[in-house]
Amino acid sequence: MRTVAVDILTGFLGAGKTTLLRHVLTHGLQGKPVAVVMNEIGEIGIDGKVVTGLANVEKMVELSSGCICCSIDDYKFDLAIQEIVETAKPHLIVIESTGLADPEPLAYRVKSSGLGLDAVITLVDAANVERQLKETQVARAQIEGADFLVVNKVDLVGEGALERIEKRLARLNPRAERFRTVRGAIESDVLFATGVAAYRERARGSSDHLDADGISSFVYRSRRPLRQEPFERLLRRLPSDVVRAKGIVRFAGRDWHCLFNVTCGRHELTWIKLEGSAAPAENQGVFIGRALDRHRPEIEAALAACEAEDERRAEHG
Amino acid sequence: MADRHPQPSPAENEEPKPPTATDTAYTEEEEAEVHKRLEDLGYVE
Questions:
Q1: Which end of chain B, N or C, is less surrounded by CB atoms within 10 Å?
Q2: Is there a domain that residue A188 lies in?
Q3: ipTM (interface predicted TM)
Q4: What distances in angstroms separate CA A79 from CA A34, A73, A88, one per listed residue?
């Protein structure tokens, strides 16, 4: 279960969630096996039909007749997740919520079910967000709970209005990374868990490779075990330009490996017991973000400072 | 009267045995599957 990542796709009614999902399922996600959980309030799922049958969609489950954040009970949710994991064996589960769902309780539910929460992606309807924020509480909750804010339908508003909207979004959620799109056609790999491997691959090719979205990456490797406390402190204090950081490390005095995942300032550690060929011989990580040529030396120095001098001293120190 | 200094049981005296193939959490096939998943999700290469 720990090796299945979950991305939550949320956004107000009509923001373009299914359109974006269809786009990334068609053009992105690196062809990895993906399962989609679609939550619609009505009895008949319309959106589900839009993504069923796409090449890398191993499984499509519709949770209808209730909102996934509040009215579908834990048992039904866990059952659906368990069925997906066992039958489709996906590497990534994308949960598309209803337009009225608050992502916070849903994120909590995902973590409680033992899955790794990768990111909360909120679609914002540029043409209607001001009115939605005025009329509803949930529009605000969706923006505040996001790791990534995708401002969609930017072609329907002028540049001045767009700047005003982005300023407001930044005030509501200064932590989130923002993108602009038209009809959900986002070209960045950074949003979904399966895109991280692409940045790792690019970092191997050229250390200063910069994507069209201005985001670059570098890879960290070391053979010594790390001290957990300073490592966690490092993750908490990463510069805000670091959009994602992800990898596997071994801490001194611990038998299990630790998977770390940082998404826009929110970090999670999960533990995994690895043996044989599954266990990497070294710590590995990838750091993804903007202006990394400036931040890299500082991050690498901080990582080196986390290395335990020897395992026994770290255990008793 | 209870013995205040009980002898350690034989099990406590024994050296821990190195793990055998049957003690490992995964079969070779499962190890490869886990590695592939970690690779796909960007944790390792």
A1: N
A2: no
A3: 0.75
A4: 18, 10, 14
